[in-house]
């Protein structure tokens, strides 16, 4: 028998880990909001510029605007402001052109055929004028998307460091490990006769097929959702970076800042692909006979595999029991895990022996039976591990119920 301890934080992690995680979202949002906000403010100011009549000097389609595959508007117009004449060749602030020739031709034709053309002049700098004003929608919607990260960042940090009700914290204080593991480990419980019908009834199943505690399909779907959500948001800002390079004016600040978020997105893609590959692994099917297993008894474990087995290099089957204690530590949750029993049942690197087999599985009497409460669990499981070269390994846990010692055994 092997006994080992594993103690680690639950999914919420420690305060510092959570703060750093949510701070990443907050900094990402603030940086992008600042960059996009500067452009938004500049566009917004043009809505307060003075509308002035202008005369079109020339207007035609630019067949190589910004890039060879895009079309733009080559325009020149003159206007008078405060008694002085000025000339401008800017159609719109930060105009990107279009790959749609028909769209550009319609704009050019509309300008040429319009006898009353107005432009918008910056009263503080009359030399600056635009023929049309850019819509606030694109940058405005991008800023709103940024606030998703802001909400996650600020909300997460506040939630992490919030103060809980002292009375509630007092009631949730964890029991020491010795009270949970050592006491039960040394003194296995026996159920009273009035509970026999509930846990140790006479109609015991002859055998039971165990169910894995994880699903390859669920893991894949979870990975797909996380990948689409993360990369969908990051792609909005990645497009801004690509546009800046396409225009020949790279935005290096945004480029450098977005690199770690792109790397996270690539990591999520790899994780999702990893779970996709695991769908093709052989799936173990475990059966316990008899189906009810009290402490101090021996049951027979049989197994078969559904799928290809020839790629498995080594197969190991172990019996283990672990304790899980979940409690609040400050304002975060923590789960301590302690494996207090582990026994190797089967191990081989011969393919013919892996496909199917049987082995005796003895449950020790001086251990704790299966147990589940609000903050504590005792979980018994059969663990199957298969090593596959250059492919995701097989790693499945099959929980099963170990009952207290049957009182009839003492009679």
Show the helix and strand layout.
Layout: E1 2-7, H1 15-46, E2 50-62, E3 72-81, E4 84-88, H2 101-113, E5 117-121, E6 129-130, H3 137-161, H4 166-171, H5 177-186, H6 196-199, E7 208-209, H7 216-246, H8 252-278, E8 283-289, E9 293-294, E10 298-306, E11 312-329, E12 332-348, H9 351-354, E13 356-362, E14 371-372, E15 376-388, E16 394-400, E17 402-403
Helix pairs in contact: 1-3, 7-8
How much strand content do the residues show?
25-35%
- Look at the structure and give the mean pLDDT: 81
Strand/helix succession: EHEEEHEEHHHHEHHEEEEEHEEEEE
Level of helix content? 25-40%
The structural domain count equals 3
Instruction: State the separation between the terminal residues, measured CA to CA.
Output: 29 Å
Shape designation: elongated
CATH fold descriptor of the largest domain: Immunoglobulin-like
What structural class do the secondary elements suggest?
alpha+beta
Compute the number of helices: 9
Biggest β-sheet, characterized?
A: 6 strands, antiparallel
Number of DSSP strand runs = 17
Q: Looking at this structure, what is the CATH superfamily of the largest domain? A: Macroglobulin (MG2) domain
Q: Which spans of ≥5 residues are poorly predicted at pLDDT below 50? A: 1-13, 168-202
CATH architecture field of the largest domain: Sandwich
**Cα-atom Rg, whole angstroms?**
34 Å
The top-level CATH class of the largest domain is Mainly Beta
């Amino acid at each position: 028998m092997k006994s080992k301890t594993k103690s680690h934080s639950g999914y919420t992690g420690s305060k510092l880990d959570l703060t750093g995680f949510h701070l990443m979202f907050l900094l990402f949002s603030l940086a992008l909001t600042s960059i996009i906000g500067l452009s938004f403010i500049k566009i917004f100011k043009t809505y307060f510029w003075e509308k002035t009549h202008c005369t079109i000097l020339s207007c035609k389609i630019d067949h190589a605007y910004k890039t060879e595959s895009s079309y733009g508007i080559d325009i020149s117009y003159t206007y008078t402001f405060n008694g002085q004449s000025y000339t401008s060749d800017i159609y719109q602030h930060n105009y990107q052109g279009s790959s749609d020739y028909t769209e550009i031709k319609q704009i050019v034709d509309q300008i040429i055929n319009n006898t009353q053309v107005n432009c918008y002049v910056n009263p503080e700098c009359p030399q600056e004028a635009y023929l049309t004003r850019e819509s606030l929608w694109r940058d405005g919607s991008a800023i709103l998307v940024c606030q998703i990260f802001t909400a996650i960042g600020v909300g997460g940090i506040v939630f992490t460091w919030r103060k809980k009700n002292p009375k509630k914290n007092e009631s949730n204080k964890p029991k020491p490990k010795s009270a949970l593991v050592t006491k039960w480990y040394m003194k296995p419980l026996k159920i009273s006769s009035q509970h026999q019908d509930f846990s140790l009834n006479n109609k015991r199943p002859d055998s039971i097929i165990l169910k894995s505690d994880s699903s390859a399909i669920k893991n894949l779907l979870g990975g797909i959702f996380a990948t689409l959500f993360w990369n969908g948001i990051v792609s909005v800002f990645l497009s801004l970076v690509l546009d800046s390079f396409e225009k020949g004016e790279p935005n290096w600040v945004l480029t450098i800042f977005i690199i770690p978020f792109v790397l996270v997105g690539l990591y999520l893609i790899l994780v999702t692909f990893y779970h996709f590959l695991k769908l093709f692994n052989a799936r173990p099917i475990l059966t316990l006979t008899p189906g009810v297993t009290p402490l101090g008894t021996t049951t027979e474990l049989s197994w078969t595999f559904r799928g290809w087995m020839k790629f498995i290099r080594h197969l190991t089957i172990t019996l283990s029991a672990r304790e899980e204690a979940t409690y609040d530590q400050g304002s975060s949750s923590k789960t301590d895990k302690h494996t207090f029993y582990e026994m190797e049942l089967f191990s081989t690197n011969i393919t013919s022996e892996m496909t199917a087999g049987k082995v005796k599985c003895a449950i020790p009497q001086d251990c704790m039976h299966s147990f589940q409460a609000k903050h504590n669990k005792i979980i018994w499981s059969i663990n199957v591990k298969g090593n596959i070269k250059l492919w995701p390994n097989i790693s499945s846990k099959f929980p099963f119920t170990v009952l207290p010692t049957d009182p009839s055994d003492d009679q």
